[in-house]
């Protein structure tokens, strides 16, 4: 415990916020978190949803005290573009695994693929892949899989809101997927191959959206290096109120001091909103102080107090 306090004290102070990394292929989400920690000089960095090592695209991370706000983010709807390769199956359900089956017969044509896609819309059942971060008795399934173990996994309900065919050139089909949290596009590709009787795996995957975070906001690790050299690294951060889709509220004096200590305060004349409305309170210097909610008693209650540095 003393070691943790000492490392926090030695961290370089700085602003909080969210950052969208354009994850490169061949690295884990945890690898990216470590790279962001090094560049920002803080251990307080966490990602908001794992991307498979071969996948690219949107990987949102929370910096410093913004990690406290992750549970309050809007539902993390995801959007992907991926390539499904028909006729092959692998142990990981993607191109990174060992091929376990090759289909010898004819492959589906464009019309067959188009006809099958609507069957996967809405709420469907998916069995999580063995090579995944899902845990069994506290152990990630991918660790068991690497030991050659395979266990029964109960299916879970996931939601697919949109599934479109963007391009077809046998044996590959490029698809667009918009889905709810917890959906495995690898499993979707494999299940599509099973439905069409030829097997399939996910050849490539790029995430374009994760909740409120879009690919247009994403930066590469190389761009972060350039920003650090130019002294504008923190300018990349997305403000908490923007990520949460809420407004900003300015407080000062005793009300601000009371809020910093976890107390509730009156809203004043500038915050006449419906009960349940949330806001990020900032000091008159612009420093984020707390995520708050206006309660039915017309008091502002802190949901999370945010400490500087």
Structure notes:
The protein has 309 residues and is an alpha+beta fold. The chain folds into 3 domains: 2-73 and 213-240, Pseudouridine synthase (2-Layer Sandwich); 78-210, Pseudouridine synthase; 246-305, Archaeosine Trna-guanine Transglycosylase, Chain: A, domain 4 (Roll), CATH 2.30.130.10. Helix content is 22%, strand content 32%. It contains 8 helices and 17 strands. Strands 1, 2, 3, 4, 7, 10, 11, 12 and 13 form a 9-stranded mixed beta sheet that branches. It has a 4-stranded mixed beta sheet with strand order 14-15-16-17. The chain has a two-stranded antiparallel sheet with strand order 5-6. Helix 2 packs parallel to helix 6. The longest helix has 12 residues, at 29-40. The radius of gyration is 23 Å and the shape is elongated. Residues 1-7 have low confidence and may be disordered.
């Amino acid at each position: 415990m003393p070691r943790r306090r000492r490392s926090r004290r030695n961290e370089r102070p700085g602003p909080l916020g969210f950052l969208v990394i354009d994850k490169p292929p061949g690295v884990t989400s945890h690898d990216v978190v470590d790279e962001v920690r090094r560049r920002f000089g803080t251990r307080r960095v966490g990602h908001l949803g794992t991307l498979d090592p071969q996948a690219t695209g949107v990987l949102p991370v929370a910096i410093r005290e913004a990690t406290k706000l992750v549970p309050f983010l809007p539902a993390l709807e995801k959007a992907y573009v991926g390539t499904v390769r028909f006729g092959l199956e692998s142990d990981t359900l993607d191109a990174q695994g060992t091929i376990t089956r090759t289909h010898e017969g004819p492959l589906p044509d464009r019309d067959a693929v188009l006809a099958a896609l609507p069957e996967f819309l809405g709420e469907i059942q998916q069995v999580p892949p063995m090579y995944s971060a899902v845990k069994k008795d506290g152990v990630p399934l991918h660790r068991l899989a690497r030991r050659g173990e395979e266990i029964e996994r109960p299916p879970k309900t996931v939601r697919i809101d949109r599934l479109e065919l963007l391009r077809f050139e046998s044996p590959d089909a490029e698809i667009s997927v918009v889905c709810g949290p917890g959906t495995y596009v690898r499993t979707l590709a494999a299940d599509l191959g099973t439905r069409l009787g030829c097997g399939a795996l996910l050849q490539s995957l790029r995430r374009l959206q994760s909740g409120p975070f879009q690919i247009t906001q994403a930066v590469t690790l190389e761009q972060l290096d350039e920003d650090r050299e130019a002294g504008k690294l923190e300018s990349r951060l997305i403000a908490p109120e923007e990520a949460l889709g809420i407004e900003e509220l300015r407080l000062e004096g005793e009300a601000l001091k009371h809020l910093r200590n976890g107390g509730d305060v009156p809203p004043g004349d500038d915050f006449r909103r419906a009960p349940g409305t949330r806001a990020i309170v900032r000091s008159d210097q612009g420093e984020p102080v707390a995520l708050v909610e206006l309660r039915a008693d017309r008091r502002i209650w802190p949901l999370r107090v945010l400490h500087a540095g």
